[in-house]
Design brief:
By secondary structure, the protein is of the alpha/beta class. It is about 20% helix and about 25% strand.
Length: about 160
Amino acid sequence: MGINFYDNNQLGLYGLMSGSLVRVNSVAEMVEHVLKEAGSNEIYLYGEGRENYQSVGAGANFDVAGDRSLQLGEDGKLLGSAGIWLPKMAKYVQKIHLMGLDTENFKSLNLMLEVGKALGIGTWVYGRHSMLVYKSDGTEPIRRATDSATMDREAV
């Protein structure tokens, strides 16, 4: 069962959708929802994105603290509270789709790797154009110029 998270401060098409979307304002709020649901092994995160940056509540306003986004700090690790919160949902999430993340030509491979590390061995991390399977001996990046559902079927 999957959960569709939508950046509550994001304007645009997804904001007009209703039903299965859960609006969130921060990484902490997203993780708390996953823990409450506890049966969801796949999440989709819709929000502002670019290379090595996925908004989780910041909308179009760049999040310098890393509490309302997934991004890397100067040390190459997850910035802000994301490094603390993401591991809390590791035993529940097997696949995470970062729908705003620019992954053309593996531009965001470092962020995908850090999200995979936070969620644990075997986690599948998807961006718009790429997929990464986090393994204990490294990563296995897979690139397909297609949607994440097709990549999922082809990888199995």
